[in-house]
Amino acid sequence: METRILETKADMARAAGERASESLREALARKGGANVIAATGASQFEFLDVLTQAPGTDWSKVVLFHLDEYVGLPETHPASFRRYLKERIASRVHPAAFHYIEGDARDPRGEATRVGEILTRHPIDVAFVGIGENGHLAFNDPPADFETEDPYLVVTLDEACRRQQLGEGWFPSLEDVPSRAISMSIRQILKSREILCMVPDARKAKAVRDCLELEVSPLRPASILRTHARTTVYLDRPSASLLGSARP
Q1: 1.10.10.2840, 3.40.50.720, 3.40.50.10240, 3.40.50.1360: which CATH number matches 2-236?
Q2: pLDDT at residue number 185
Q3: Which long-range contacts (CB under 8 A, 24 or more apart) does 133-136 make?
């Protein structure tokens, strides 16, 4: 794993976006197509702007999946990740396909199985991820399941995770934040050929420090990224501000 610290969020987004574009072009040149996992959330706004505006990517040969979606939330809701991805990626670049998680499907476990079966037929070239304020990776809150081979899981969101969603302005109150989600599993994320992890802002500094400097543990789900040789973590100065201060 490599860690890159940039001065500002804009610098971080630019560096990560340029590497992401390179990864897509490499996959397209190597095998004529690319399979990608796209993250959501406020931490990804600037990165996705850079990525979708970069020249030289034949998006008509790119297939995308996303990491997670709230159970029971319709696509029309402002916090819907399907809505986010359609607005911030699909409508801008028009990929070959985007396999969305239907969070409001009648049977969430059946939906997890459905999209998981599609994913297993598309080995991932590059995954774009972030780290939550509680150290989560996708919606795998601590203690995360490091063992399951299921591509997607139905998970229960802890209060820290739900408070982050509230704090980012996606919901009017904590009671409005769903308590369950369909999330890509830890092992499935680690099957990606390359992982780019973008983590800006001071509110993520403790999670960044703990995940990068303390023991790899399900209590710090994103710490597992340290076991993946082709992971690059992109930080800005605020999110990197506590590095070097970890205590066991």
Answers
A1: 3.40.50.1360
A2: 98
A3: 133/160, 133/161, 133/164, 133/203, 133/204, 133/206, 133/207, 134/158, 134/160, 134/161, 134/164, 134/207, 135/207, 135/210, 135/211, 135/219, 135/220, 135/221, 135/222, 135/223, 136/161, 136/221, 136/222
